[in-house]
Amino acid sequence: MLTVTGVSRSFGGVYAVRDVSLTIADGEVCGIIGPNGAGKSTLFNLITGHLAADHGQISFLGQRVDRLAPHRRARLGMSIVFQAARVFRGMTVRENVMVGLHGRTRAGFVSAALRLPRHRRDEREIAAEADTALERVGLAEWADRPADRLPIGQQRALQLARALCARPRLLLLDEPASGLRGQERERLAALVEELRAGGLTILLIEHDVAFVTRLADRVVVLDLGQVIADGPPAEVRADPLVLAAYLGQAT
Ligand SMILES: Nc1ncnc2c1ncn2[C@@H]1O[C@H](COP(=O)(O)OP(=O)(O)OP(=O)(O)O)[C@@H](O)[C@H]1O
Hints:
GO cellular component, one term: plasma membrane
Order of helices and strands: EEEHEEHEHHHHEHEHEEHH
Bound molecules: adenosine-5'-triphosphate
Protein name: Branched-chain amino acid transport system ATP-binding protein
Pfam family, one: BCA_ABC_TP_C
Distance between the termini: 30 Å
InterPro entries: AAA+_ATPase (IPR003593), ABC_AA/LPS_Transport (IPR051120), ABC_transporter-like_ATP-bd (IPR003439), BCA_ABC_TP_C (IPR032823), P-loop_NTPase (IPR027417)
Number of helices: 10
CATH superfamily of the largest domain: P-loop containing nucleotide triphosphate hydrolases
Number of domains: 2
CATH class of the largest domain: Alpha Beta
GO molecular function: ATP binding; ATP hydrolysis activity
CATH topology of the largest domain: Rossmann fold
């Protein structure tokens, strides 16, 4: 589904990502971990198109995408949940999901603003689609509540619902567990497991090694911009190179 080949990116002459290659197969959950400054965010942004690579190739669904802008990659089926994503205040949970869907309808923003008949029909379809996504992430009963009152764990689920509405082929999660603890983290993990069981292909970067190794089929470990391990979670956790990279770092 995704192939990264020999990708590098430097800042001011220092490599943040150096000659990284990895592949993600259809239906796989791939986790990218690594100590602070390892290059995780840089690699994530190279894949989504928010950063341009200096060298290397990225292919998605058999097509070169490394020169495409983020929205073009999104149209091909990449959907991102950003770590810092916020909910829209003053809107309900359902409306928050509907905002993401408006751009996709034939009617679009113009007739939405003018409230044309076509808009009213599309609006009902959009609301139904939003409800389906909310159901999928366990937020159905919160649909009519103000989104900014949701606890942070549910706000993250809401962002997932928004991303799912784009019907992604590949879901990219940027530190989904950050700021979550205990039960919230458990709920999110269960949700990702459900999405995986549904056959969705997922790439996640995370600080929380335990969270990743629990969810991922495969874990790629970066250190100083390079891949130092790539394999099943149990294998990677026991790898001496990985243990050495994490030595002295809080994981
Ligand atoms: N825009 C930038 N300008 C200059 N240097 C950068 C930039 N982005 C990243 N770097 C450097 O590249 C290296 C990798 O950073 P990156 O943020 O990708 O690592 P990370 O693994 O995501 O780190 P963390 O776990 O701390 O978020 C670091 O040395 C960082 O200082």
